[in-house]
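Fold Annotation — chain and its backbone
Next Lines — sequence and tokenised fold

***
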Amino acid sequence: MSENSARRRRAKAVATAECIAAYSPATRGSGCLAIAEDVANIVTHAVSIPAVVFAFLELQLRTNTAREFFVLALYGGMMLSLFAVSAVYHFICLLVRIYPTGEGYKYMRVLLRMADRSMIHLFIASCYTPWLLLRDNGPFAEDICKAVWIFAIFSILAQNLPFKMTADNEILAITMYLILGVLPGTFIGAFTTDTGGLLPLAAGGALYIVGLIFYFAEGYLPFSHAIWHLFVNSGAFVHYRAMTQYLIRESKESTSFYY
């Protein structure tokens, strides 16, 4: 009986180790290079957090109505959560690399991996919310916005309900990222009565999509995950500047950080 229990424990440990190893950044690396990649993954998103806080406050200073305030608070909060969760997740990955016998760190990494990927869905939905709700996009804009958020939540559940990360889950997640990232933008481009800002909106989306090339190169190209982070940073910046220039102009009752 004890031998069977020991076998089950060993099998469970092996399965858990395989699951964790399959979804660790730079899994093909080892030694100093792998640690350097983990550090790069942390830094490339952690350094963006102060800028995101600045952007959040800047947008709030530009609001004139309660609707603008809550919509931009949602967008800024999701952007801040995206970078913060990513930085913490990669920090735990570094701890697992340095202390491979720490089982607690390994399970934290699995949970934070799920949170990290979930935040991407929520952030994409929050990026489109201001463009759908704060300008004239036709009579169905609010319904489209609701559909975007429903799809984002559905995507998170579809990816995480098995409670384990597999290659199929990863492919499903990337597919849903692309659907969530492209279709709402297509709707905005087709139905908006104000074309201002559409070019930077599309440019930011293109940066996210091109960055996926480096995401899939992980394990083959050194620091590819960190490079992907830089594309995410760039896409987020382009979208933020598009909002300040075309969507939320200077409030008449408040002062921008720029002046």
Q: What stands out?
A: Residues 14-28, 251-255 have pLDDT under 50 and may be disordered. Residues 159 and 172 are 7 Å apart (CA to CA). The chain has one domain: 2-247. The chain is about 80% helix and 0% strand.
